[in-house]
Amino acid sequence: MSGQRRGGLWVLIRSQWLLLTVVGLYVWAFRHDADRALQALQISATTLSSVLLLIAAVFGLVGVLQVWISRDLIVRLLGREGGIKGLLFAAFCGTLLIGPPYIIFPLLMSLHKQGARWAVVTVVLSAYAVKLQMIPIEVEFLGWPFSLGRSLLTVVLAIPTGLLVERLMERRSR
Amino acid sequence: MFQIGLIYLFIVTVGYLILLRIDRGRTLLSLQTAGRSLTRLIPLLVAVFGLVGLFQVFLSPAQVEQAMGASNGWLSLLVGGAVGAVSIGPPLAAYPLAGSMLEAGAWPPAVAAFVITWISVGIITLPFEASVFSVRYALLRNGIGFLMALLVGLLLGVLL
Fold this sequence. Notes:
The complex is a heterodimer.
Chain A: H1 2-15, H2 17-32, H3 34-68, H4 71-80, H5 83-96, H6 101-113, H7 118-127, H8 135-142, H9 144-173
Chain B: H1 2-22, H2 24-58, H3 61-68, H4 74-86, H5 91-103, H6 108-120, H7 126-132, H8 135-159
Helix pairs in contact in B: 1-2, 2-5, 4-6, 4-8, 5-6, 6-8, 7-8
């Protein structure tokens, strides 16, 4: 019984560690300086409410993409193409793919086992740092020049990153 | 910000109405998926925006400048990349935090490195990545990914 309860607590800590940390910080802040803590809480609430509609809209888009272009479909298409076209396609897929690592990693490993190059797997994981469907939110917080520049540079550099990792992977196995 | 959200919501709603006529079942499934992803994210959103408030009130621009300012150059870039690499979370969470950093006077290349490593380099997920692919692959990908994030930051600094 107590073991089960401890298990539940662990799950809570592991899944909500950030929320728990922030709550802890607020407790500290209110003891330390209640006025400023209240001010922080107000800033949080205004910022969150100002982007809530945008977040809701973006998730509407995320839902559509997830259902119409499923992860499985992306992986199936990725396995087919080779050469530079395959790498470009991998970069594009990486920017659209969403999901936690515990889903993405095994998915890409199964792709590799089916014959996809290490470069393809790596390009997907590098381009993953750009999220096309989230760009409106990124722009709201970071501005157009920053968001656009960062996204383009990340996608462009994803391909050399993939080729480099592939080379280093194959060097020792030969 | 509010208006842009409204415009976006309008566009997405129109999209849904069109899709509803094309394929009712899949559209309803999309809506369900969207709702589920969003509700799952609520605790995280509360946490991240709570952090943004604390960040703005309790960290002075001078402190941010000292840790991630342009005057520190390389060190700022490393700090940005390292903070992103040890933390883990969905992309959505990185943007408000990065925005607070920029506002407080952090060097844009350091902030860009933070956003990229936050999403694609993971120290905490490294053991898992190693178990799925291989230790060698996980180390290579995260190591090179980290360096590339710094490079993107530097190039962005040149562009901006």
